[in-house]
Design brief:
Shape: elongated
Structural class: alpha+beta
Distance between the termini: 117 Å
Radius of gyration: 32 Å
CATH topology of the domain at 71-146: Ribosomal Protein L9, domain 2
Strand order of the largest sheet: 4-7-6-5
Largest sheet: 4 strands, mixed
CATH architecture of the domain at 71-146: Roll
Order of helices and strands: EEHEHHEHEEEH
Strand content: 15-25%
Length: 204
């Protein structure tokens, strides 16, 4: 069936696109949800009259997509899954899990836009997840898959590094204070040594 998309449909097209789909898909989903309308002369003319507004929305979506891509490209997701001592996973990493982690970071991404190569993720390690954005734009998000033991070890290491950094900062602050006190004492001694000859001269 030939239809005109009334809104963007992932993996199918964008608002205003004329596409061919299976009759069942059109009648059972696209038309009832008003995601599309049947292609005919009247609807074609209607969409042509809305062409400028549609193009404006597309431009806004492209800009938003570029901004989102820039943010997502710098994201590192950490997901903990059951795994053996060798690092082999007992479970699997799903798009729903990735979506949940993204939500924690403030990203609202539709699950159908998240492409997780589950068949390729069989061990703990670092992988990439593809996030489909607008048109042909996509982002590659870094995914760290770890076991519970690895997560705890990473948290312990982070805590130790934070404690070491805090101690170093405390020692640096103490050293700076001591240096400042020493400098202040030296300045006072210099003033006193300058005042002493002047006092002797006055007494003469």
């Amino acid at each position: 069936m030939k239809i005109i998309l009334n809104q963007d449909v992932t993996h199918l097209g964008e608002e205003g696109d004329v596409v061919e789909v299976k009759d069942g898909y059109a009648r059972n989903y696209l038309l009832p949800t008003k995601a599309a309308v049947i292609y005919n002369k009247a609807n074609e003319a209607l969409f042509k009259s809305r062409a400028a507004a549609i193009e404006q929305r597309k431009a806004e979506k492209r800009a938003a997509s570029a901004t989102l891509k820039e943010k997502l490209d710098n994201v590192v997701l950490a997901i903990t899954v059951p795994a053996g001592e060798s690092g082999k996973l007992f479970g699997s990493v799903t798009s729903q899990m990735v979506q949940a982690e993204l939500q924690k970071l403030g990203f609202e991404i539709e699950r159908k836009r998240i492409d997780v190569a589950t068949h390729a993720i069989k061990m703990t390690g670092t992988y990439s997840v593809i996030i489909h954005l607008y048109e042909n734009e996509f982002s590659s998000v870094k995914l760290l898959v770890q076991s519970e033991a690895e997560r705890l070890a990473a948290e312990k290491k982070a805590a130790e590094e934070a404690a070491a950094a805090a101690k170093a900062a405390e020692e640096a602050a103490k050293a700076a204070e001591e240096a400042e006190n020493a400098e202040s004492a030296a300045s006072e001694e210099a003033v006193e040594s300058e005042e002493a000859p002047a006092a002797e001269t006055e007494s003469l």
